[in-house]
Amino acid sequence: MTASTPLVADPQAQRTGSSDRPAVDVAVGVLVRPDGAFLLTSRPQGKPYTGYWEFPGGKVEAGETIEQALRRELIEEIGIHIGHALAWRVEMVDYPHALVRLHFCKVLEWSGELEMRESQSFAWQQLPVAVEPVLPGTIPVLDWFAAERNHSGATISGATSADSAAVIG
Ligand SMILES: Nc1nc2c([nH]c(=O)n2[C@H]2C[C@H](O)[C@@H](COP(=O)(O)OP(=O)(O)OP(=O)(O)O)O2)c(=O)[nH]1
């Protein structure tokens, strides 16, 4: 688990890193193209944070490994079959709607054409990303990319941070 600094906190969100709620495991796929561009998708209608940009993925179901969940979610959501998923970082985020444990996995190989099966939008991005708003629990990933890529400066073009969750270490 990473020791992330809390982002701008929602008064309703836990800032301490402790929570009475059980955490929901989420498998998240960070697809990276050979040119370094990474795939962001927008959250569909009917979900918390509709329209916010995130990496594709979803909740792990009972009996699934993270990789199995990721494989299933990426077929269901964006119509691709992934190769190996490389475990990258784990992050807890305390949202008003749920406490989530995000398992970010890098995916460098996949097959199939992208098909947004939940009517999302998608965008291949480099730093700084040009799409907004970015989901609070997704913003730290941009910082990890920045560190890996020696990118200095903003990770989001023209960003003003307006979060409503606490990222906890
Ligand atoms: N997929 C994804 N979820 C993220 C990211 N960052 C982040 O905080 N989250 C949070 C938002 C949600 O609280 C949770 C994912 O839950 P979800 O509701 O989208 O999952 P799901 O697709 O399985 O949805 P459903 O079964 O409820 O329809 O993880 C991210 O980059 N990608």
Helices and strands in order:
Layout: E1 24-31, E2 38-42, E3 53-54, E4 57-59, H1 66-78, E5 81-82, E6 85-94, E7 99-107, E8 110-111, E9 122-125, H2 139-149, E10 166-168
Parallel strand pairs: 1-7
Antiparallel strand pairs: 1-4, 2-3, 2-9, 5-8, 6-7, 6-10
EC number: 3.6.1.55
Keywords: DNA damage, DNA repair, DNA replication, Hydrolase, Magnesium, Metal-binding, Mutator protein
Family: Belongs to the Nudix hydrolase family.
Q: What would CATH call the class? A: Alpha Beta
Gap between N and C termini: 7 Å
Total number of distinct structural domains: 1
Q: Which runs of at least 5 residues are low in confidence (pLDDT < 50)? A: 1-16
Largest sheet data: 5 strands, mixed
Bound molecules: 8-OXO-2'-deoxyguanosine-5'-triphosphate
Beta-strand fraction estimate: 25-35%
Could you tell me the mean pLDDT?
88
Radius of gyration: 15 Å
Q: Percentage of helical residues?
A: 10-25%
CATH architecture call: Alpha-Beta Complex
Note the run of SSEs as H and E. EEEEHEEEEEHE
Strand order of the largest sheet: 4-1-7-6-10
CATH fold title:
Nucleoside Triphosphate Pyrophosphohydrolase
General form: globular
How many extended strands?
10
Alpha-beta classification: alpha+beta
Number of helices: 2
Question: Summed up, what is this model?
Answer:
Its cofactor is Mg(2+). The chain is an alpha+beta fold.
